[in-house]
Design brief:
- The protein has twelve helices and eleven strands.
- It has four domains: 3-80, Orthogonal Bundle (Arc Repressor Mutant, subunit A); 88-135, no CATH class; 152-239, Roll (SH3 type barrels); 252-332, Alpha-Beta Plaits, CATH 3.30.70.
- By secondary structure, the protein is an alpha+beta fold.
- A hairpin with a 5-residue loop joins β9 (276-279) and β10 (285-291).
- It has a five-stranded antiparallel sheet, covered by helices on one side. Strands 9-10-8-11 form a four-stranded antiparallel sheet. The protein has a two-stranded antiparallel ribbon with strand order 1-2.
Length: 334
Amino acid sequence: MARNEQLIRQHKLLQILERTRFGYSLLELRDALRDELGLTSLHTRTLRRDIDALQAAGLDVISMELERGKVWKLGDNAQTAYQINATATEILALSVGRDLLNPLNGTFIGQGITSFWNRVQEAVPDNIWQHYERVRQILFVSGTPVKNYENHRGILKTLERAILQHRWCDVEYSSLTQENSQRNISPRAIVFFNASLYVIAEERSEPDLLRHWKLDRIQSAEILDSYFKAEEEDYHDYLESGIGIYANKNSTVYEIILTSIGRKWVEEEPWHPKQEISSLDDGTTRLRVPGNHDMEIIPRVLAFGEHAKIVSPERCRDVLVAILGRILETYAKH
């Protein structure tokens, strides 16, 4: 059974248990999970294993015998274990992190952040909160995109069901060059990258080729009754193979020559955890960095102006030269 499937189901189970004071029977939990996740079937043995997994993780899930039978609920430790005494500095740090995650509004993570923040505000005395508000006037987050996925809530729920159930989806997708085309995809995971959400999925017409589908461009999603086979995968190494969000099984090492100013920029804002920087005899610097697509590299090099030059692969350098030629033509017309 895929790990993603188990984790999604166990997280939803925890959310259901958080909503009840008096507990649910095993059948009530099963029916709630089936309803909220859109499952066609769920065996009580699977549900018992999920409860055992939550207990093994240290969550206080207890069972009780009532007149109506055995029920499960969160124990007293679960209700009190997360009572937190926060300092003003910790509240400031939390608020900055919350600002950075604003694009997740509309997802279950965004809902959890908002709910937690509201409880923090209720627990902090008014005079402390007023002091915090004053300090926040001189400490704020800027430069994050003003966006959220409230309008994609239904699409996200459909995609989460498809991931859980290994089912194909028909999506209406608008790319940069083609509008509103119907695509048949097999969703595997959802990725938060650079303030945007992407769906990792194969397209039926291109099997064995994972692509990243930007959620902003998905206009609709319909789950189908056909199923795909999903292997257990860890997408962390896969996603770290390049700089951006482009999908590729095999990354390429790009070599770029930097001036002293370009080197300072790269040292201040690294491009990739595995980048290599070395000094050359002429005073310049060689940057070697992995990438999955030329367009992960070219915009960064263009932003550096005369302080960066692509050396290899030659294909990427030729693409950049062609882009520069078209840019010059555009400016020559006006």
